[in-house]
Amino acid sequence: MAAMAAGMGALTDRAAKAEAQVARATRGMPSPKIRDIELILTQPDTVRLTIVKVLTDQDGLYGYGCATFTQRADLVNIALEKYLKPFLVGKPADRIDDTWQACYNSSYWRNGPVLNNAISGIDHALWDIKGRQAGMPVYELLGGKCREAAECYVHTYPAPTYQVAIQNARRSMEQGFRNVLVDPIVPGMGQFRGSTAGAAAMSGLHEGPVFESGIFAGTALKWLEECRKQLGEEVGLMCDIHERVTPNEAVQLAKEVERLKMFFMEDLLSPEDIAYFRQIREQCSTPMAMGELFNSPHEWTPLIQERLIDYMRMHVSQMGGVTPARKVAAMGEILGVKTAWHGPKDTDPIGQVAHLHLDLACYNFGIQEFTGFSDRVKEVFKPCPEVKNGYMYANDAPGWGMEVDEKMAARYPYGGGEEEDDLKRLNGGWSEIRRRDGTIIKQ
Ligand code: GCO
Ligand code: MG
Quick check: is 172 in a domain? Predict the structure, then answer.
């Protein structure tokens, strides 16, 4: 009995000491509560952006988060307004992972794009708040810089021919970029990324754009051979197949381009076919990049665990935000997989700057996709990170180091931007592209 009492005493002692330690550490930082959650909905360019603003009960302490899912923006906004806002108002604003876990479990069914984007908006904002509270940029909270800046790659599309792609690549290389994405285009066939513009001249048994994967796969090889020949051995060449060939065509293409020493081949397979990565790995060493379409740990975990990819390309807001991203990045470091966060125009600038902080702080950073900040975007998001000589630089302001000009944002409402008729009609959703016989294709 005496021994147990002594043991209990020691435990109570240690608990009291720990409590005193926490109190000392946070004495200067009263715990902020979430007072309100606002949405900043804006479309300065061609994509609908959803920025979450989390306001705390401490004057002037707030944070911004990326919740942009342009094809279903209105659904994410409802998920935030109707579900996460009533769930979170009044809760602590300084318990990031705890809040993430609570939101993730609050819908019971989870790991989907709409709810993950809603959670991401809150999650990014809490990291911003933490940084503002501590007076530090988020990359410092993540352990500090592993590098001075993040090396970027840029797109060469839209490019109707490989000659135009090579001209675009040369222009980027003159600006200091050492890595370019050269996406093959088959003149006359439906393009992708939701664009039905330049409707296909290829005839089919139906109206609308036609796409045949076999023709595309064959063109891709010739296109990449030409780009490598004309741009030289030095430049990093990426190619985004965008899940548009069959698994067998993907294995063949990966083997055929091996001699071109690609930086990576992206989305050779669709998420439903990721088991074929084993065949690709067994047959060639072409670097694989995959992940922008992933929403669930069940998708990225096997590919990282078995070292079946070289670059994780997740779209951070589709994973649920910075909190899961930094955990998966750490898993990748242990297993030799680098980060290459998905950074198209439909990642809003808050999301882009969050990538940058992860890029600076994660040892296994690979490369950062950079699609530019237009003048209109720079009117709303201030300041956008500086990009020079192919590198993106973070500032050292607290949090994300970015403010959102809500007045300017309001000047660019959803649906007010320049977008193709289909995108306007479908509220940012994508129209269909079909094979000759009318079969819908993944795009
Ligand atoms: C990329 C992507 C994009 C997507 C777009 C979807 O690698 O940048 O493939 O181009 O198509 O983000 O909305
Ligand atoms: Mg892609």
Answer: yes
Which residues pair with residue 41 across a beta bridge?
A: 50
Cβ–ligand 1 distance for 243 under 6 Å, the answer no
| Ligand 1 nearest atom to the CA of residue 47, by list position | 13
Instruction: Please tell me the predicted confidence (pLDDT) of residue 203.
Output: 84
- Residue 425 included in any domain: no
Cα separation values, 300 from 104, 204, 249, 287, Å: 18, 36, 22, 16
Range 80-109 burial, b when 16+ CB lie within 10 A, else e: beeebbebbeeeebbebeebbeebbeebee
Q: Which ligand is nearest to the CA of 315?
A: 1
Same-domain check for residues 251 and 166: yes
The 10s digit of each residue's pLDDT in 49-60 is 999 999 999 999
| Domain end (from 80, 115, 137) | 137
In a domain, 279, yes or no: yes
By alpha-carbon position, which residue is closest to atom 12 of ligand 1? Answer: 344
Ligand found nearest the CA of 368: 1
Verify that 285 and 323 share a domain, yes or no.
yes
Q: Whose CA is nearest to atom 9 of ligand 1?
A: 242
240 lines ligand 1 (CB under 6 A): yes
Ligand 2 centre and the CA of 344: distance in Å? 8
Q: Which ligand places an atom closest to the C-alpha of 367?
A: 1
Nearest atom (ligand 1) to Cα of 70 = 13
The number of domains in the chain is 2
Distance 443 CA to ligand 1 centre (A): 10
Query: Which candidate, 209, 163, 63, 154, places its Cα nearest to that of 367?
Result: 154
- C-alpha–C-alpha distance, residues 311 and 306, integer Å: 13
- Within 13 Å, how many C-alpha atoms sit on residue 212's CB side? 14
- Quote the radius of gyration of the chain (alpha carbons, Å): 23
Do the domain assignments include residue 443?
A: no
What's the pLDDT at 418?
Answer: 72
Q: What is the pLDDT of residues 195-219, one digit of tens each?
A: 555 445 688 899 888 999 999 999 9
Q: How far apart, in whole angstroms, are the C-alpha atoms of residue 96 and residue 124?
A: 9
pTM of the predicted model as reported, rounded to 2 decimal places: 0.92
Alpha carbons 358 and 364: distance in angstroms, whole number: 10
Q: Does residue 442's CB lie within 6 angstroms of at least one atom of ligand 1?
A: no
Residue where the block lists tokens 């296994």: 364
Residue 28 in tokens: 């200067």
Which residue puts its alpha carbon closest to atom 11 of ligand 1?
A: 193
